[in-house]
Specification:
Blueprint (H helix, E strand, L loop, with lengths): L1 H40 L7 E5 L6 E5 L5 E5 L2 H28 L3 H4 L4 H10 L1 H8 L5 H20 L6 H6 L8 H15 L2 H15 L1 H7 L32 H4 L9 E7 L10 E9 L7 E7 L2 E7 L8 E3 L3 E7 L5 E5 L10 E4 L2 E4 L1 E7 L7 E7 L14 H14 L16 E5 L7 H10 L3 H8 L7 E7 L4 E6 L3 E2 L10 E2 L9 E2 L7 E3 L5 E4 L22 H16 L5 H8 L5 H4 L2 H5 L6 H12 L9 H18 L5 H7 L2 H11 L19 H20 L8 H4 E2 L13 H5 L17 E4 L6 E14 L7 E4 L16 H5 L4 E2 L4 H7 L2 E7 L3
Parallel strand pairs: 1-28, 3-6, 10-19, 23-25
Antiparallel strand pairs: 2-3, 2-28, 4-5, 4-22, 5-25, 6-7, 7-8, 8-9, 9-16, 10-15, 11-12, 13-14, 16-17, 17-21, 18-20, 24-25, 25-26, 26-27
């Protein structure tokens, strides 16, 4: 009996231990889950109820709709822009912190060594210096707006110091107090990304140095066949033109990954009300750029004082950049004029220069010493030299032994980071960059006047001082008028200076003669065609008296597609609608690929699988539909063909740094009719390859990859399976483990191509999934006058906060080219409101 009681007692003990263990495990799980949820949701801002905020003068109401898009109502303009800063700090504080650090050249202070290259770049280019020059030139109203915006950001930081986005916690960083120069510096980085013509000059010079003028012209053909490339004779005796390391500038693509050689592209058009269902103009557009999470853009409404405007803003800067007020709507597309020139300079001493030669005399070099703080490392000192042309770029690419050693360590912690390459100052000629932007950038004043403009004359007046970020603007107003206006500060060059390659800086014969007057820039008002469309391609005919550029960004295929669709819709006689505008924005027909595809379709297959793949190519209609097999096969084939043509002659950094996809497409279209062109020969083999051999080789590689990834059933090789839109976080996107948290959860099939109106360039490395890296970052359709039915979509949601419901809630719409309404009237805004936050002045 006693033994049985002991056994029973033991069973009870073990049973209680098991229950206690399970209970403890459950408590731990609950605690860990609760802690995790708390850590994730802690930074999420309050968007409902009331808050007292120090710095406000009167009450402010902020409505947010089901997508979290804020509409701000204030009693005065100070409070309006104070609240914009406050709201955007709620939603995008980390993004704003990164962007202003990029502009100021202080990213290394937060992220350590991986930010050093970018900091060097922007210290040399001097985004902060330009901001300092610009601030006194702005009018009092614009300065008030910027100051109020910074006050709002700082008010949020000061009120919630413990509710910072998770990224700050992981990086051990805190946001600094915002100053007006931070806003201007960030705005200047947008101008930099937009102005990359200097890279084309350098690339063309590199091609000539490496391969000669003939092969360089084949790979980078000119637009004007009556104006062939001229190499300045003064440079013939200088070895820089025959040195494939030309100033080492090819390292710049390592400094700014994601924006290299792309800049901004876009499309915009407006249609007269005589052709629309509402009787008023329809205006549509999209902005193409490198995409990530969060989006560069945020939709917002600003209502207070003289301002009554909604549209897209750039968090980190106040006001609305693309949008409409109560009378006019506007959008824009990159104009891509040549506003930069590289000058080869003569120094008195290569190693320790103090002077440079100009017109037979020696001038003192200007010097600025920059000190860059690097987290976890000693400060880095950088001396920037200036001639009267601008900053000397060579020091950007000096690489020390310590730099190379540090990179090995940081590569392990941060994942892939573009490799540094050693370039020697002693083997290069000094090169300085001339750019009118270095003198000032008063775009914020123009944006203010644009937000307030009520008619065509005021619209043009707002753009008359637009001095960087060169754009083609389209316009529509409630009186039925439509218009187009180019806005840029474009230099007038002497006849022998084409702006195509670096030129001698010491002779004085290649100086700018001034700038094209605003009144002479391309412009059109109420054209007889009843529509206007601008899509990155050439906007003037040969009668235009000024040279805008030697390197138009786009060959015109997308522009032709937009023009054809608009004219076909008009010819049908039915009124055009917003749905028609959405269909144009989503059109995926590629005119450029149609010029190349016949050569692929004509080759002989090596296997039955290749033969089956070629049948799809022959039947393909040149559209990038998600269910298209032909599009998928062509896309992968083109990726291999692109590499097989260029990678043997050109370094990878050279191709990706300065030879963007659209330029390479134009190059291949120029080369492919010539079966025996030397570009098709692989210089690394003893044989001489031909075009068809390279096409066949690329087809074999493409089919092998598709079969390995998706099986031998060719019918399953659809574009929607291989071209996706997972977006990377701008700082943590490549770090193991963290990237799975901070990159987008959504990974949606994505239609389109870099040669279609539905713009999408997918990176395939090498050749992994075709992940979209450069695309339409936002889209807008404004039914002028019927403002409450504007259609917009952003590439991500309003919020940057991880797992927030509004972080990715527009991604699926964006990927499938759908839209949501963006209300304007107070009644419509209140009706759409999902949450309402009242900000009240806090008594000191």
């Amino acid at each position: 009996m006693k033994s049985n009681r002991i056994k029973g007692s033991n069973k009870n003990i073990w049973s209680r231990i098991l229950k206690l263990t399970l209970l403890i495990m459950l408590v731990v799980i609950v605690l860990v889950s609760t802690t995790g949820i708390w850590l994730i949701t802690k930074p999420w801002p309050k968007t409902n109820g009331k808050l007292q905020v120090e710095g406000l003068e009167s009450s402010v109401t902020i409505y947010r709709d089901k997508l979290g898009i804020p509409q701000i109502y204030a009693e005065n303009e100070h409070d309006l822009f104070f609240s914009q800063g406050y709201v955007q700090a709620q939603d995008r504080l980390f993004q704003m912190e990164v962007n202003r650090r990029v502009g100021n050249g202080t990213l290394s202070e937060m992220v350590g060594y991986p930010g050093l290259g970018m900091d060097k770049l922007f210290r040399v280019f001097g985004m902060r210096r330009v901001a300092e020059k610009t601030w006194p030139l702005l009018d009092d109203e614009t300065r008030m707006i910027v100051e109020a915006y910074c006050e709002g950001i700082n008010a949020y930081i000061n009120t919630y110091p413990g509710k910072l986005p998770m990224e700050f916690l992981l990086l051990g960083a805190k946001p600094r107090r915002w100053e007006p120069l931070d806003v201007l510096s960030y705005g200047n980085t947008i101008a930099f990304i937009n102005g990359l013509n200097y890279s084309y000059e350098m690339f063309r010079a590199q091609l000539i140095a490496k391969l000669g003028e003939k092969r360089a012209s084949e790979a980078l053909p000119v637009w004007d066949n009556d104006n062939p490339l001229v190499i300045p004779p003064e440079l013939n005796k200088y070895m820089w033109l025959k040195n494939d390391k030309i100033a080492g500038i090819s390292n710049l693509n390592n400094i700014l990954p994601g924006t290299e050689a792309f800049g901004w592209a876009s499309g915009a058009w407006v249609i007269s009300g005589k052709y629309t269902d509402s009787g008023k103009p329809l205006l549509a557009g999209d902005a193409h750029m490198s995409i990530g999470i969060p989006s560069l853009w945020q939709e917002i409404g600003l209502h207070g004082g003289r301002f009554d405007v909604v549209g897209f803003s750039l968090p980190g800067t106040p006001m609305v950049v693309i949008g409409h007020n109560q009378r006019i709507a506007w959008s824009f597309t990159n104009m891509n004029p040549d506003v930069q020139d590289l000058y080869v300079e003569k120094f008195d001493d290569r190693d320790n220069p103090t002077k440079y030669e100009y017109m037979g005399k020696w001038r003192e070099l200007e010097r600025v010493e920059e000190v860059i703080k690097v987290k976890g490392n000693p400060d880095v000192k950088l001396e920037v030299l200036f001639t009267h042309h601008g900053p000397v770029l060579n020091d950007l690419v000096k690489v020390t032994d310590q730099d190379l050693e540090d990179q090995k360590n940081f590569d392990q912690a941060w994942g892939y980071w573009p490799p540094l390459r050693r370039e020697k100052w002693a083997n290069t000629e000094p090169i300085a960059l001339r750019w009118a932007f270095f003198d000032r950038c008063v775009i914020l004043k123009c944006v203010k006047e644009l937000n307030l403009a009520q008619n065509w004359d005021q619209f043009r007046s707002a753009l008359s001082q637009w001095d960087s970020l060169s754009q083609n603007f389209v316009y529509g107003d409630i009186d039925g008028n439509i218009g187009y206006q180019a806005a840029a500060k474009i230099p007038i060059r002497v006849a022998k200076h084409q702006g195509a390659v670096p030129v001698p800086g010491w002779t004085g014969e290649y100086e700018w003669k001034g700038f094209i007057p605003f009144e002479k820039l391309p412009s059109m008002y109420n054209p007889p065609t009843g529509y206007l469309a601008v899509v990155n391609s050439k906007t003037v005919d040969d009668s235009y008296p000024y040279q805008l550029t030697y390197d138009w960004f786009h060959p015109g295929y997308r522009g032709r597609a937009v023009k054809n669709m608009i004219e076909e819709l008009i010819a049908k006689g039915d009124p055009l609608t917003k749905e028609d505008m959405g269909n144009i924005l989503g059109d995926n027909l590629s005119y450029g690929d149609a010029l190349i595809r016949p050569y692929l379709a004509a080759v002989k297959p090596a296997t039955e699988l290749e033969a089956e793949a070629l049948e799809y190519i022959k039947k393909w209609d040149n559209r990038y539909d998600l269910d298209s097999v032909g599009a998928a096969i062509y896309k992968v084939w083109y990726t291999y063909m692109d590499r097989n043509v260029y990678d043997d002659e050109l370094e990878k950094e050279m191709v990706w740094g300065f030879f963007p996809p659209l330029k390479r497409l134009l190059s291949l279209i120029n080369l492919i009719p010539d079966q025996n062109n030397s570009w098709f020969d692989n210089v690394n083999t003893p044989e001489i390859e031909t075009r068809d051999q390279l096409i066949s080789k690329s087809l074999t590689e493409a089919v092998d990859w598709l079969a390995q990834e998706y099986g031998n059933n060719v019918e399953q090789w659809t574009l929607g399976r291989i071209q996706k839109s997972r977006l990377n976080h701008q700082i943590l996107g490549n770090i193991p483990y963290l990237k799975n948290i901070f990159n987008s959860r959504g990974n949606y099939p994505f239609s389109g191509s870099h040669t279609a109106v539905a713009f999408a360039f997918s990176f395939c490395t090498p050749p992994g999934k075709l992940n979209i890296g450069f695309a339409s970052s936002q889209r807008n359709i404004f039914d002028v006058g019927n403002w409450d039915e504007a259609w917009t979509v952003n590439s991500t949601g309003v919020s940057e906060h991880v797992f927030h419901p509004h972080r990715e809630d527009q991604m699926k719409m964006w990927a499938s080219i759908k839209f949501h309404e963006l209300p304007f009237s107070n009644q419509a805004v209140e009706k759409s409101a999902n949450r309402t936050l009242h900000l009240e002045p806090k008594n000191n």
